[in-house]
Amino acid sequence: IREKPDEASSYVADYIAHRIKEFKPTRERPFVLGLPTGGSPISVYQLLVEKYKAGEISFENVVTFNMDEYVGIPRDHPQSYHTFMWRHFFSHVNIPPTNVHILNGNAPDLAAECDAYEAAIVAAGGIDLFLAGIGSDGHIAFNEPGSSLASRTRVKTLAYDTVLDNARFFDDDIAQVPRLALTVGVQTILDAREVVAIVVGARKAVALRECLESSVNHMWTLSALQLHRHATIVADEDATLEL
Ligand code: GLP
């Protein structure tokens, strides 16, 4: 727990940088990083970019897999997760573009796209560290309430609460918010060697309580991290108000 959101972000950025450096990734055995979108990780990305520019860290041998992507908006749409990731992170560091993996929400066969994504994660050696945020309904990636805890990458219908939450990115117009997404599953995340979730703001306080203090259950999918051997929640004080 850190007092302010900035301090939580800086803890996470330092931690990720430390993990990558300690790993000493090579082309043959890159560091495989799972990544989220959303407001919460933006300052983590900014801090990682600063570390890169200061020569503290290199992303040359880092391979990334993003958690999720909307279905039905073009890849270059200003609110696609593809655009988000390049705008906030990838364009500013030395990661080879071929090392970046983001689900294609416009693939002609979405089920095949999801299966290929799971296979690509395995081929890369599995995810070393999955960074996550959470939705205010406790979802991790787009694993909405009711998702199987054994789920893998698939198409998911967004919960109405999520559509409302994300309308802020679509001119506050819910009609513009996609209703479907591709998302890694809860089990895909649990398979990572390590998971770090950043949870900031009072808007997440109920979700954090349900995920940490209730039993593991499919209505608050972040609660699945209780089953992981190496999971860390980094929260600011506001997010802990209900604990
Ligand atoms: C979306 C993403 C999640 C993210 C959530 C929270 O639903 N699919 O991965 O955790 O937004 O976003 P924010 O950090 O903006 O609250």
Compact description:
Helices cover 30% and strands 15% of the residues. With 243 residues, it is α/β, with parallel strands linked by helices. It has one domain: 3-Layer(aba) Sandwich (Rossmann fold), CATH 3.40.50.1360.
Mean pLDDT score, rounded?
Answer: 97
* CATH topology call: Rossmann fold
Alpha-carbon distance between the two ends: 12 Å
**Sequence stretches where pLDDT stays below 50 over 5 or more residues:** none
Give the amount of beta strand, in percent: 15-25%
Describe the largest sheet: 6 strands, parallel
Oligomer, anyone?
A: single chain
Radius of gyration: 17 Å
- Percent in helix: 25-40%
Number of helices: 7
Strand order of the largest sheet: 4-2-1-5-8-9
> Which class best fits the helix and strand makeup?
alpha/beta
Write out the distinct hetero groups bound to the structure: 2-amino-2-deoxy-6-O-phosphono-alpha-D-glucopyranose
| Name given to the CATH architecture | 3-Layer(aba) Sandwich
Q: Element order, helices and strands?
A: HEHEEHEHEEHEHEHE
Query: How many structural domains?
Result: 1
Query: What's the CATH class label?
Result: Alpha Beta
Overall outline: globular
- Number of E strands: 9
